[in-house]
Structures are given as structure tokens and as C-alpha cells.
Amino acid sequence: MDLEIDIDAELTLSQAQERCRVAQAGMYQLAQISVGTKSDNNKVFPVSKAGFNERLSGLLRDLSFVEGSVATKPDWTKLFECDMYVASHVKHVSVFGK
Amino acid sequence: MLKREKAFRAVNHATMWTLMVCVCLLATSTVRAQKKPPILSDNDISAFSKSEIKRLEGIAGDVTNPGAAKLARNKLIAITVEQVDTAFNDYRKKSRKRTDTLNFLFDFLEIGASSAISIVKGTLRAKSMIGEGLSLFQGSRSAFNKDFRFLERQILFDKMVAKRSEKLTAIYGKLDQEVLEYPWEQARSELRDYFFAGTIDEALSGLSRDTGAAAASAVTDLAEAKKNAGIVGAVSSKELAAHNAFGSMLDPLVDRFDAAEKASTKADEEIAAAQKQINEEMQKQPAQQDQAKITAANTAKTTAEGNKKSATETEAKLLEKMKTLFSKVVDNPILTPVLPEISKGTPQQKIGTAQREKIEESLKRARDNSAGFRDYQRVLLSLRAYVVAIVDRDPRPSDEFQKVLVANQ
């Protein structure tokens, strides 16, 4: 992955979506999300690990996270499905880009 | 049958007698503390002499004799403290006695009812009724505990003692001040606060405030620990504003270049297709050549070449634009030290090794003036990502970069 961020497990679905949209920064395309942990100073925190790849042309800047397994969404391109933390609970999420 | 009735009556009488003895005990028994010395009697102290208080207030208000006024004010403070303490201790004693009495009564009734179920010689209905009574006592006790906060009383009294001590320390710290600096009226106001510090309402309010402050502190500590661990939270309003501002200025440049690049590629394909058709026709015998096809292919080729030229010009213009932006960034005293950092990312943004090398390579080419549009794009958008990521702790690079973009729109 060209860029990775660890997202706080307490974030809601829309907050996580907004975080990934801002992290794309006009040059990275969100490619995957997985559940994991992050430790520091003997403290362990649950996180959603988001991975991005550089995409300088044809970037899908806008993102839409939908809870559950959703095949299509009008006017949106499906990027992937993943398990991630939503408000501290692991949920299955479909990710779309536009 | 008569004997059994007599026995039953005897049990009833015994129960009644025991109950009466207990009621008498409750009414007469107190938890006795040491006897108070006469000087500390609550009944006959100067604090309750209105005329004496009036006289002292008069002296305390006389600023022409500061020594006497200070002494009178301090006497008034001591009297008020004594009154407040008497009221507080009396309330605490009564509250404890009432709680102890009620607890004893509930214990007695519960034990009595439990024993009565075993002792009583009656029908199942009678035992069931006593059982219901027992449930009633137990339910009442838990309701009392809950509604009158019996179990929280000690915590509240501890809170009151702490708050009272805090207020009194502050008042005693001002006893050395002259009456002009610390007049009796101000002391009286603070003594009123001292009195309220010994009330249940104030203790509850203080407890709630302290708990809230502790909770807020714990939340801050957790957020700090997460930040130190490199975990990102929700997007802040500053981050969002900066992200959107950069998006409105940089994204159209990239979109225009993408469109020009696509148009250029399409023109190349059209030129190649037209050329192929022309070549095919030209390879035929002159009599078999379709002039109309050749003409149409030539026209298509000319149009495609025009489109290609236009796309190339747009690409060149956009490249110049990016070059200008980069040079302005390099000239900016706040942005130029940031440039070497953009490939490293932030503790919250981990840039992969390959990507880091790509950014550094593009940055080098941009500095050497040998970069293409995509190099400049990579550098300027990496700068954007970096300044947005740090905007909450240092907004200056973001502000400066936005100024550069606005000035060169």
C-alpha cells in the first residue's frame, strides 16, 4: 500500500467515510480496510486499518460506505467489501467511489 | 382445641410484647457521645444574642477605627462559623439517628416476619399472608434506600465536610486583612457559601461537577493516548475546511489535465486510424482507389491533428501552471521547509517505502526543472495532504499554501 492510516474504532460509519475521503487527498484511492489493533506504551486500541494506492488520474474522489453486502449503487462504482469497526463494533461494509 | 387456642394466644401475646419492648427501646436509645462541656453548649452562646451581633456589626463597619473594626469583624466571623457548625452537626446527628432507627425497624420487621412464618400454626393462607408482608417490608426498605439516598448519605457528608473545609480555609486566610480590603459584608457572603457547602443539594451538585470533570479528563487522556499511538479520529472542522479549499483549487487543474490527456490519446488513435485507411486506399490500383474515402480520412486526420494540437497546448499550459505554483511554494519561507517532510508523512499517515521514493524522485525532478505534470501533481498533492494533516496543530502551512493557490488562480 502507498498510504496507510489507522482509524479509531469508535468512529461512526459516516465519520470513517469522511476520514477516508480526506485521506485520499486528491491523489490516493482507497483500496482496502481491515480490522486490527494498534498498541503504544502498553495500551492496545482496536482500529480499522485503511490502505490507499496512488492514483493520479481517474481518481474516485467521493466515497460512500454502506453497511452490509450491497452489490450496486446507482452512479457509483463499487470498490470493495470489508469488515471494519463501526462505533466499536465489527460490521461488514460495502465501499463505493464516484 | 381450647389448649391450642390458648397456646396460639400466648404466642401472639409474646410477639406483641416483644414489639412493644423494641418500640420502647427505639424511643429511648441513642448512640451517646461524650457529654459537651458547658462552654460548648448550643443553648447559651453569644452567637444567639441579636443585640451583641448588632453592636459588633456597628463596630466592624466603623472604618475610622480599623483595629477595633477588624477585631469585631473577626468576632462576627467566629460567631457565624459557630452557628453554621452547630446547625451542620445537629443535622448530621439527626440524620444518622433517623437512618439507624429506620434500619433497625426494617431489620426487626423482616426478622420477625421470617420467624413468624415458621412459628405460626395456621392455614397455608396465613403463612402466605405473612410471606407477602415480608416482601412488603423488604420492598419498602429498598425503596427507602433508593429514594432517600440512605446508602449515599455518607458519601454526601464526606463531600460536605470537604467543601466546608475548603470554604473555611479561604475565609480564615483573610482574617489578617483590614476591613477596607475584606469588609464584614464580603465575609458574610462567603460565610453564606460556607453554610450552603454543608447542604445535601450543594454536596450532590459538587459531586456531580467533580465526577463530570473527572470523566472529561479521562476522555481527554484517552484521546491523547490514541493520538500518540498514531490513530486518527473524526475529521476536524479545520481539516475539512482546508481539504475542501484545496480541492476546489487543485482538483479542477487535475481534471483539465486528465481530459486533455484523454483527448490527446483519442486524437492519436483517430490519426492512426485515418492514416491506416489512407494507406490502404493508396496501396490499391489508382482505378480502384475510393477518392471519397481518402478525402474523408484526410478530413478526419486533419480534425484529429487539430484536437491533438489543442490537447497538447492545454497540457503545456497546465504544466506551466504547475511549475509556477511549485516555484511559489519554493519561494515561500513557511512552505519551503515543509517540502522535505511531505514524503515522510505524519505519525497518523504512513507512506509506503515505494511511494516515498516516488515522491522524493518527483520532488527532485521539480527542483531540477525536468518534471512533468504528474511529478508536479504528486509533489503539490503530497504537500496538500501533509498541511491538511497538521492543520490542527499548525495552520500556517495550510494558510500559506491556500494563499499561493489563490494568488495564482
Describe the protein:
The complex is a heterodimer of chains A (98) and B (409). With 98 residues, chain A is mainly beta. Helix content of chain A is 12%, strand content 56%. Chain A has one helix spanning 13-24; strands at residues 3-8, 28-40, 43-54, 63-67, 77-86, 89-97. In chain A, the strands form 2 sheets. A 3-stranded antiparallel sheet of chain A has the order 1-3-2. Chain B has 409 residues and is mainly alpha-helical. Chain B contains 12 helices and 2 strands. At the A-B interface, strand 1, helix 1, strand 2 and strand 3 of A face helix 7, strand 1, helix 8, strand 2 and helix 10 of B.
Could you list some keywords that capture this structure?
heterodimer, A: 98 residues, mainly beta, 3-stranded antiparallel β-sheet, 1 helix, 56% strand, B: 409 residues, mainly alpha, 12 helices, 1% strand
What topology emerges from the helices and strands here?
The complex is a heterodimer of chains A (98) and B (409).
Chain A: E1 3-8, H1 13-24, E2 28-40, E3 43-54, E4 63-67, E5 77-86, E6 89-97
Antiparallel strand pairs in A: 1-3, 2-3, 4-6, 5-6
Chain B: H1 2-28, H2 50-60, H3 66-119, H4 124-147, H5 153-172, H6 184-196, H7 200-228, E1 231-232, H8 237-283, H9 291-331, E2 350-351, H10 353-367, H11 373-389, H12 396-407
Brief account:
With about 100 residues, chain A is mainly β. Chain A has one helix at about 15-25; strands spanning about 5-10, 30-40, 45-55, 65, 75-85, 90-95. The two termini of chain A are about 20 Å apart.
SS field, number of helical segments of chain B: 12
For the largest interface, the chains and their residue counts are: A-B, 32 and 38 residues
DSSP helix fraction of chain A: 10-25%
Please write the string of helix (H) and strand (E) elements of chain B.
HHHHHHHEHHEHHH
Structural class of chain B: mainly alpha
- Coarse morphology of chain B: elongated
Assembly type: heterodimer
Radius of gyration of chain B, in Å, reads 46 Å
Structural class of chain A: mainly beta
DSSP helical segment count of chain A? 1
Task: Please provide the count of β strands of chain B.
Answer: 2
Report the count of strand segments of chain A: 6
Largest sheet of chain B: none
- Net shape of chain A: globular
Mean pLDDT of chain B: 83
Strand content of chain B: under 5%
Nearest-integer average pLDDT of chain A: 93
Separation of the first and last Cα atoms of chain A: 21 Å
Largest sheet of chain A: 3 strands, antiparallel
Please report the distance between the alpha carbons of the first and last residues of chain B: 113 Å
Question: What percent strand of chain A?
Answer: over 45%
